[in-house]
Design brief:
Blueprint (H helix, E strand, L loop, with lengths): L2 E5 L2 E4 L4 E8 L8 E6 L6 E6 L5 E3 L7 E6 L4 E6 L8 E8 L8 E4 L3 E6 L1
């Protein structure tokens, strides 16, 4: 069974930075695409970033140039570096395990989420 545990959320002011982490277990971490999604209050969940098994990355237009996804396959850990944060980035951020080695397989499993709150 896939288990994903996020950490690193918190409250920061606009322009600040955070680093989210996700420790994965129960799956072949290096063989699957991994990613982050988020859900803001009153909105649907949206994909934020993904990293394929080959290391290729993909970002939502709203976070390009500000967020960076990376992974440590030796530690089965996924990261999301959030820079130049905006109030619109306020959301619960979820780590996700995709159904295959690339983003087009879609997300299969999610963690419990970590809350990111940006104040002006």
């Amino acid at each position: 069974q896939v288990q994903l545990m996020e950490s690193g959320g918190g409250s920061v002011q606009e322009g600040g930075s955070l680093r989210l982490s996700c420790v994965a277990s129960g799956s072949s971490f290096s063989a699957y695409c991994m990613g982050w999604s988020r859900q803001a209050p009153g909105k649907e969940r949206e994909g934020v970033a993904a990293i394929g098994s080959d290391g290729l990355t993909r970002y939502a237009n709203s976070v390009k140039g500000r967020f960076t996804i990376s992974k440590d396959t030796a530690e089965n850990t996924l990261y999301l570096q959030l820079n130049s944060l905006e109030t619109a980035d306020t959301a619960v951020y979820y780590c996700a395990n995709y159904g295959g080695d690339a983003y087009y397989y879609g997300m299969d499993y999610w963690g419990q989420g970590t809350l990111v709150t940006i104040s002006s």
